Amino acid sequence: MPDAGSPAASYDALMAASGLGRAEARILLAALLGCDKTWLIAHGDETAPASLAEQARALFARRLAGEPVAYLLGAREFYGRRFAVGPAVLIPRPETEGLIDWALALLPGLPARARALDLGCGSGCIGLTLALEAAAAGFGLGHLALVDQSAPALELARRNAVDLAVAGALEAGPPAFHEGDWFAPLAGQEGFDLVLANPPYIAPGDPHLVQGDLRFEPPQALQSPEQGLHDLRRIIGQAPARLKPGGWLLLEHGHDQAVEVAGLMVAAGFQAVQGRADLAGLPRLSGGRRGG
Question: What is the mean pLDDT of the segment spanning 257-265?
Answer without folding.
Answer: 97
